[in-house]
Amino acid sequence: MNRQERSAYRRWTAWQATAFYLAMMCCLVLAVGWALKDRHARELAAARVNSLAHADLVAEWAKGAFTSTDNTLSGMANLFALALNDERGEGLAEAFEMLLAQRQQSLPFLDSLGVIDHLGEPLYSTGNPGFPGHDPEERAHIRRFLQDHAQRLSAVHWPSEPGEHRMLYLRRMFDGEGRFTGLAAARLDLFYFTHALERLQLHEGQSVAFLDDQMRLIARRPGLSGRSASQALGMRVESAELEQALRGEEVRSLTLLSPLDGDRRVVSIGRVEELPFSVIVGHSVDQVLGAWREMVLVLSLGVLVMAALGWLILRHYLHLVRTEDDLYRSEQALRTLNGSLQAELKIADLAFNTHLGMLITDADGIILKVNATFERITGYHASEVLGRNPSILSSGHHDADFYRQMWGAIDAQGSWEGEVWNRRKSGQIYPQWVTISAVSDPSGSISHYVATFSDMSLRRAAEQEAHRLAFYDPLTGLPNRRLVLERLGEAISLCQGQGVRCPAAGRPRRLQVRQR
């Protein structure tokens, strides 16, 4: 596989695959983060809408309760005016008493009712003795209300003493001709709001509270930990954010840390019209975002699973890339090795097919391969000798001791060379100069034998021709003087070596040999 084919086969490199994995994970995280952020905002927005609706509903209920009180005081003022001006005052007075009894039964939060003249003196009261005007702070509030003719028709006063749970409600009275005649007063039991809130169905994490315009707590559900309802009544709520929202008109819903229980809440404000009260409905952020947190957990696990699966796929892909690279490098190495082997084989082939005859046998001496020079010298074709023992070339010229010494040298030294007389296929016996080498495998055991030989027939013929020309007459074929002198020297040396007197040596004379 060349580089172009490899590039077409593998589209992405390792860093490209890693970059793609990281990009996909970033996109996945961003998408999940955007979805969670959007869900977070929608959950909080839904909680604000829900708490606003709940706050408005409770505010309307509170307004209805005070409207009933206001209607009671208005009816009481009208009956009292008729009782003062009509001659049948006794009958109207009885009707007045009956109205008061009915209203107190239908409005359980009415603690006391009373009538005050235009000078601030109490004329009539029912319920709590000394009402109205017995308390100095109440009396001062009544005087201020009487003196301020520009003030609205009704007013509310809550004593500042800790633990006080009754509230004064005043309304102006007029006669049939529209003249101001006095005030109708009602004292309201604030624990009524606490009991009323206990009847509301609240979900887990929800809270409802009544605050006055001085940030004092009137009622709350659920109650405060470690405080009874009477202890919590009138407690000032310290929260700058909430106080700023209560004094303004723009903000009706906000998220803050509750100063009453320390829980972070989404709170909404419902204002009771014409009264210094506000309804605060809260939803615990932990409860509001409970489903969102579960979604965060599930999506986070999903992202982790996707990341893990992607990482496994990426690792597998990178492993494939490394394997492919290794295979590519191995292929290149094999190509290089194959090229070198081809070159070596060509060299070996050239060397194998030289002017020397060659044969290769296994460790048992079975011929495995011969070259063309072998065929030319021996006369045997390769197919005739493959699988056979080289002994088919033996001429019988050498005895067993010769071959024993030859193989002993091969085993000891790894090779042997010398002259061997062998037989051609034609039966001709001829001399060879043979070199035999043993080939060992990596374990050191002999695996093959390689024999090379050259035909010495021509060389021997040339040597014999040179000897004939040197020692024989080329015309007659008779020995010449050089041969006689050589033979004579050999004989003298032999005699001297054996201690025998040689006649020719004792009579030195010039030997006359005729040469032609």
Describe, in short, the structure shown.
This protein has 516 residues and is of the alpha+beta class.
Commentary on this structure:
The chain has helices at 3-9, 14-85, 89-106, 136-147, 191-198, 229-232, 240-247, 285-288, 290-352, 372-378, 382-385, 400-413, 457-471, 481-498, 503-506; strands at 110-117, 122-126, 154-157, 166-174, 180-189, 206-212, 217-221, 253-257, 264-272, 277-284, 357-362, 367-370, 415-423, 429-440, 446-455. The protein is an alpha+beta fold. It starts with a helix and ends in a 10-residue tail after the last helix. The longest helix has 72 residues, at 14-85. It has 15 helices and 15 strands.
SS-based class = alpha+beta
Q: Order of strands in the sheet with the most strands?
A: 2-1-5-4-3
Tally of domains: 3
- Beta-strand content estimate: 15-25%
**CATH topology grouping of the largest domain:** Beta-Lactamase
| Pattern of helices and strands | HHHEEHEEEHEEHHEEEHHEEHHHEEEHHH
Helices and strands in order:
Blueprint (H helix, E strand, L loop, with lengths): L2 H7 L4 H72 L3 H18 L3 E8 L4 E5 L9 H12 L6 E4 L8 E9 L5 E10 L1 H8 L7 E7 L4 E5 L7 H4 L7 H8 L5 E5 L6 E9 L4 E8 H4 L1 H63 L4 E6 L4 E4 L1 H7 L3 H4 L14 H14 L1 E9 L5 E12 L5 E10 L1 H15 L9 H18 L4 H4 L10
Antiparallel strand pairs: 1-2, 1-5, 3-4, 4-5, 6-7, 6-10, 8-9, 9-10, 11-12, 11-15, 13-14, 14-15
Helix pairs in contact: 2-3, 2-9
